[in-house]
């Protein structure tokens, strides 16, 4: 802020070389401007303090500061990173809104002053605050709540007349856990004796400890569950349940010990939510967590027609917990997966599985209806899609279907019947791939078919039908015609 006029004046001086009368006049003007600038800054700065853009010092040995220094809005308090206050005997408190505007504050030193009180909300708006030195003040007590949300590298509190009380025992624990190397800490007992906190001058004062009634919260969708949290500690702690959104209805009772949390009619959407129980008293806090696992029947939420990727892909999304076992039916017959056709899960998100039935160079024999069956011990879901990859090069898919119908009986939509026999159609699909001989056979059979003119006309009509909509109806029609004739 104050940097540019100074730089500018210095540059002028360089330019003009040794000062000449004109330059001297200019020079005085320069200092005048600079002085005014400084005055402006100073006026925003409290008396007995010195301010720069980033720092505020209030060091006057006979300082008369009675409240925490506050800058006017025009002075950009958000840029201040360091506040250093010393020897202000009349400064007794840091109140709720005193430090609020210094959002970028990093170091706060208030030493050898008269502080007795710091609001528990004083530093709520100062996330960068990491160094606090409050040594040599008049604190007899200080709440942990003022500092608990801060990520401090230093919290210096020595030289205060703290009273031996459970209210300050957090300081010992805080310093032991965060700054293990800090010096010993003293308090005054009821007889004004100076006692080390190491000697445990306060009884019935300890960290809370929590225990959940289960480590494994596994529930079936639609059921209800109650989780219990037992907390010990002295003074007796308050208990709170902490979790991100739970969509299921839930209610809690934290006035009892153990505290309870009941979740009703549990939704599968709540699977994976972490539930924590937090107990807190003036000394500190403890927490325990458990992951909610919801078991539920599979649900196929997405199944679409194939699209060409590196391989062809029939995309799907399935939800289910435990992970559903996925099987496919091709035209109602179990599809045996192979190096040419296989299921691949691409993305797993909690209990959602997104993947593809991948097909490597599918041909006309792969055309047809694909049914995805997803199953786990809680149930089953299925969904179908019609796939058309390629026109039959040999003329007619009619004969393929005819032969298949004669050899293996009526194609059926009954999955149970077909799930456990080895599937001749699919294995043919795979082994016939790029097989010149079978194509020749198809051609011959196709030519033979031409003899039956009536049938040919019928076929042409049907072929146009397949071009326009290669859906389920087309292939069903194909099955039915030879059986009727
Ligand atoms: C506080 O001290 C400053 C100088 O240190 C002085 O200018 C100011 O008048 C004093 N204010 C009061 C209220 O005594
Ligand atoms: C700070 O808060 C205390 C107690 O709430 C009050 O007595 C005091 O006047 C406040 N100080 C200032 C400067 O607002
Ligand atoms: C204030 O903060 C800066 C940067 O975070 C650090 O380098 C400096 O040592 C701190 N001052 C004190 C007195 O700790
Ligand atoms: C706290 O501030 C005082 C006064 O500036 C200083 O003497 C002391 O070294 C500081 N303590 C630490 C640990 O930085
Ligand atoms: C706390 O600060 C330290 C370094 O000062 C940093 O490594 C750590 O990630 C911070 N923790 C949080 C929760 O911000
Ligand atoms: C308490 O004793 C320690 C070590 O003997 C000393 O450093 C500290 O200043 C004393 N505190 C008070 C308030 O007398
Ligand atoms: C949690 O419960 C599930 C189902 O009841 C069980 O399979 C699993 O082994 C349990 N895990 C632990 C750590 O108890
Ligand atoms: C616990 O219940 C109280 C009162 O019914 C409610 O205000 C609070 O939000 C609940 N807490 C949670 C985590 O659901
Ligand atoms: C349970 O929740 C489902 C949807 O999440 C709802 O359809 C059903 O009616 C609920 N059952 C009860 C008993 O509340
Ligand atoms: C569960 O999530 C799905 C989408 O992820 C949403 O459509 C459904 O409504 C949710 N169910 C409940 C009970 O919130
Ligand atoms: C399956 O998910 C869809 C939404 O994705 C939902 O409408 C349907 O109710 C779900 N079915 C079951 C059985 O949960
Ligand atoms: C996981 O699914 C949830 C909702 O179903 C969604 O909000 C979240 O973004 C998904 N996460 C990833 C990594 O896809």
Automatic annotation (TrEMBL):
GO terms classed as biological process: cell surface receptor protein tyrosine kinase signaling pathway
Gene Ontology CC: one annotated term: plasma membrane
GO molecular function: ATP binding; neurotrophin receptor activity; transmembrane receptor protein tyrosine kinase activity
Signal sequence extent: 1-42
All copies of domain Ig-like, residue ranges: 208-291
UniProt xrefs under Pfam families: I-set (PF07679), LRR_8 (PF13855), LRRCT_2 (PF16920)
InterPro entries xref list: Ig-like_dom (IPR007110), Ig-like_dom_sf (IPR036179), Ig-like_fold (IPR013783), Ig_I-set (IPR013098), Ig_sub (IPR003599), Ig_sub2 (IPR003598), Leu-rich_rpt (IPR001611), LRFN (IPR050467)
Statement: the UniProt record of this protein carries the keyword Disulfide bond: yes
SUPFAM superfamilies: Immunoglobulin (SSF48726), L domain-like (SSF52058)
Protein origin, superkingdom: Eukaryota
Compositionally biased tracts (Polar residues): 414-429
This protein's UniProt keywords: Disulfide bond, Glycoprotein, Membrane, Receptor, Signal, Transmembrane, Transmembrane helix
Claim: Signal is one of the keywords in the record: yes
Segments for region (Disordered): 414-433
PANTHER family reported in the protein's UniProt record: KEKKON 5, ISOFORM A (PTHR45842:SF12), SYNAPTIC ADHESION-LIKE MOLECULE SALM (PTHR45842)
Record protein name field: NT-3 growth factors receptor isoform X3
Organism: Podarcis lilfordi
